[in-house]
What we know:
The structure holds three protein chains of three kinds.
Chain A lengths: L5 H5 L15 E7 L5 E7 L1 H5 L3 E6 H7 L16 E2 L5 E7 L2 H8 L3 E6 L6 H4 L14 E9 L2 H7 L2 E9 L11 E7 L2 E6 L4 H12 L6 E5 L15 H11 L3 E4 L2 H7 L6 E10 L2 E12 L9 H10 L8 E8 L14 H18 L4 H8 L18 H18 L5 E9 L7 E8 L2 E6 L8 H14 L6 E5 L16 H23 L6 E5 L4 E5 L2 E4 L6 H6 L2 E7 L11 E3 L9 E11 L6 E13 L4 H20 L30 E7 L20 H13 L10 H7 L4
Parallel strand pairs in A: 1-12, 10-11, 14-15, 18-19, 26-27
Antiparallel strand pairs in A: 1-5, 2-4, 2-6, 3-5, 7-15, 7-24, 8-13, 9-10, 9-12, 13-14, 16-25, 17-18, 17-23, 20-21, 21-22, 25-26
Chain B lengths: L1 E8 L2 E8 L4 H8 L18 E4 L2 E4 L12 E3 L8 H12 L9 H14 L5 H7 L11 H14 L1
Parallel strand pairs in B: 1-5
Antiparallel strand pairs in B: 1-2, 3-4, 3-5
Helix pairs in contact in B: 2-3, 2-5, 4-5
Chain C lengths: L3 E3 L4 H10 L5 E4 L5 H6 L7 E4 L8 E3 L3 E5 L4 H5 L2 H6 L1 H8 L4 H4 L4 H7 L6 H7 L3 E6 L2 E6 H4 E3 L2 E2 L6 E8 L3 E6 L10 E8 L4 E7 L6 E2 L1 H5 L8 H14 L10 H21 L7
Helix pairs in contact in C: 11-12
Amino acid sequence: MIxxxxxxxxxxxxxxxxDLETPGMLHAVLVRSPVAHGQMRALHLEEARRxxxxxxxxxxxxxxxxxxxxxxxxxxxxxxxxxxMYHGQPVAAIAAHTLAEARRAAKLVxxxxxxxPLWGDIESIYxxxxxxxxxxxxxxNAHVHARFxxxxxxLERSREVLREKYRTSGIVQMALEPHACLAHVTGGHxxxxxxxxxxxxxxxxAASILGLPEERIVVEASWVGGGxxxxxxxxxxPYALVxxxxxxxxxKLQLSYAExxxxxxxxxxxxxxxxSALRDGRIAARRVRLLLDxxxxxxxxxxxxxxxxxxxxxxxxxxxxELEGYAVRTNKPPFGPHRAPxxxxxxxxxxxxxxxxxxxxxxxxxxxxxxxxxxxxxLTPLGQQVGPFGLHAGLARAREMSAxxxxxxxxxTGIGVAVGFWSTGSSAGGEIQIRLGPTGLVLETxxxxxxxxxVVRGLVVVASRSLGLPPEAIRVxxxxxxxxxxxxxVYGSRTTAALGRAIQEAALRLLEELARRVPGPDELKLxxxxxxxxxxxxxxxxxxxxxxxxxxxxxxxIATQGRHYGRTGEIDxxxxxxxxxxxxxxxxxxxxxxxxxxxxxxxxxRVLRYAAxxxxxxxxxxxxxxxxxxxxxxxxxxxxxxxxxxxxxxxRIENAxxxxxxxxxxxxxxxxxxxxxxxxxxxxxxxAKGGGEPPVIPVPxxxxxxxxxxxxxxxxxxxxxxxxVARALKLI
Amino acid sequence: xxxxxALWVNxxxxxxxxxDDERLLDTLRWRLGLKGTxxxxxxxxxxxxxxxxxxxxxxxxLTLTREVSEEAILTVEGLEADPVGRTVLEAFVQEAGLQCxxxxxxxxxxxxxxxxxxxxxxxxxxxxxxxxNLCRCTGYLSIRRAVVGLxxxxx
Amino acid sequence: MTFTLLAPATGEEAVAALLAAGPGELAVLAxxxxxxxxxxxxxxxxxxxxxxxxxxxxxxxxTSTELEVGALVPLASLExxxxxxxxxxxxxxxxxxxxxxxxxxxATLGGNLVRASPVSDLIPILLxxxxxxxxxxxxxxxxxxLEEFLQSxxxxxxxxxxxxxxxxxPARPCAFRWQRVRPANDISQLAVAVAYDPLGxxxxxxxxxxxxxxxxxxxxxxxxHGVAPSDAEIRACADVAAHEAPVRADRRATDPYRRLLLxxxxxxxxxxxxDRPLESSS
Lengths: 732, 155, 282
């Protein structure tokens, strides 16, 4: 069965955001701050406006006349009025007939900004752990704290305590299609077509940023050339919309790759202090202190901190745990979601540390994890009861595979294990409409296929099974937020799981309706003739067309809707001392093995083999699932070995571009053995669990543990560049 | 000068206005409407804009259109009509050597060029020569399966 | 339009156009893979661009002792040359280390050398091989050792009105070793090239990534003797190389790490040449 979008995509036949074009369209560029932190003193657009081809130029001063409410959300200004918060922050935007004209004009904008002291590196701001009264400081975006058990006492009195400090780097999603959108404001309708993972999310964001009612804005997704979390919220759309309002023309806006690195909302650096006490080969207590760089702001406030920090405790049964995190405000772009946001970094610290504990305990690392791993009905550190969880089944397979590798690979090869856990983001809601017509079934959704296959394949397979129609009888029709059913977006590994449940509900309604129209004692079945849908009950079979009303014939068929708003489990609020922590929906275990070769003279790490054993609940489509795990591991290898954003002393990113922001290339990714663990059902259709994010999570930890296995050297900073490994090996 | 120019793309002639400083990528996408060729980094680091000039892969973002206006240009839109190109398309479809599809035109064009240039290349040699094409979704593994399958089918 | 393009049909015309242009007014285009990004980023803003595409400077000729390469030979043509791969594996590997294949189909050897880039992977191997460059001007052609041609980063001894015409590369056993954070599509943290001159019985070592521009390492060269230096000699050579280089820190590597790489890669490159069976020149 081929992927439905493959024939089009190999021919370059899908229209991405960057391909959007409409007659009379203007091209826009953003004018960006040359300093990372400063006070706006003056901004002069006159010269730029006089430049050839320029149609309009807007900055904060022009917004009052363009926005119906006069202004938007003061917390999230379109353009800064006073304080510039990060290098490259857009301070104005220009639209011209050609891109070259817009670029030329942008250079003529005069902007004067008085520099303010830079809040750059979090460790310079807080060389020591912040005091307990720091939570209200203007330098803190969020503070979370939870505790249970006698953590202090156990840590003080235990003889075997491992205290470590880990550092993680900033990364960016770097989807190969840059952000791009086409906006057209006309007759009071604010319309934007955009490369997005979440049309409704963009609508909500844009409405709040622009101070418009949501219904005034219509968002439509184009095909999306990769998202990875970076296209789940509004980024360019507000700029393109205000330019279009000012110019009264359609406006296209697209980022360069350098701008992608500088403007993307993604994971920022962090320092993770982690200490655990060991008693009789068991972890008796663990304390985690997270200092997270959250940039200029932290959308969702403490969600990133409160959600991610839970993962640093690991999927382990520990009797006393303390978790505390500060999200520090700095002069960097706002923190944002990046495929399992900040959790690979948490797992890197947690799983490296846990490996160290296993060594201290003199135990095999897999056996040590088996001893502590959470099981169904156990309690998480936040007191939530664990649901069906395939962690132990994955560990058992990893143990077998690791023995095979040991026997096959040359001495000196390092083998590392790491586990991750995750929860399908199915609590974010979604609705879908399905329409059964004479020539097939149509799934109507606002969501675009972003590459994962969840829309063109995942949803189609669920619909196919729910209605007994073959996939070729099913089409996905993309619609906009004015017409389409509400859905929260293609992210959080939720699409097939949550929208799949909605499809099952809609399918049930559809079959009930057909059963009323085609009565009979036998079970109702749908048949596909290759061109037509027929309804059959036992020996009786009719063309679907004959049971449609006139209105349905005109409208294309019988339409029903389904919805799914998942639930997350309860945590024990008595354990929470400050901020918010979050429960999980379902529990996904991801167990991975890496085999590496370490160059003992240079510190260079080569990954030779990789295996992923992933708790799938129930696999919806094997090929798509495998592809998600492969791609996820590859992305994790980039995070583990080569990818990092680096800031200079002035707060500028010094490696903005694809040459120096190093995503993995073809021969760096080894063969990956992918194995789905089934039998521990999740919240999705027939027990499916999300598959897109879990595979990234354990990778940096597994690679670091393999390096340690090979050399005995523990690298406590990711990515594990050759130089960092060389330092850990004490070569320099 | 913005003089008219004659171009030969995918086996057919085109006539278009052409400024001297224009890149082949922009001519293809915005003057000829051949938007299958994707704009990536514009610095030569991603391979998304790969097209064939006289059968050899080149980065259309770093090529002035005038520099190649006398040569035969093949883009992703022309692969269907090319015997080697067609087998490459088929292999990428069968193995789903793609996810979001953004890097895909660059990959299939580059591979078509390689197979024309080195018909007897081993899978390893082909993969080595595809390292200039980046993919962010697949981890390259489904792409590798497509390449290996193709190389084996040809020998 | 940012520039107009001229494409003369002969070397004479090209030189005349060069001589007629004011400073900074005209840029020379060979493959364009460096010039065009420079123009995009505003690092240079020529009003006219002189394309060399019509010049027939594309020789790839072997003699028993050397390889002559026309300045406009694309790098990909070098890597596809079976004899080059066999006789000068170090040059073959250095060529393959430049960008991706699609870039190498247009990037030229001449363009790479004229750029005199501090991060060129080709300069160290050509220095080690003692390549000579032919410069074409109004007075005809003159020849210089590459080492003399390269003056400082982005500065060469090209006189006004001169173009790089050809490169002559002695065919000698050689090796190239380099390291990057990411193995492909990256800039080397350090690159080492080593060649052995069978006639003189002595060695050439060149490094890149350590000084403002790639350079020979005379102390390291002096530490090696004869066709088969001992492991101890090689270690000594690597130590000298690591000490004598004016190493520099930047965002790709620190000074101590570069010295570590120098020591490791110099030893590996020398051993690679020593341990590889000598090819006949047939």
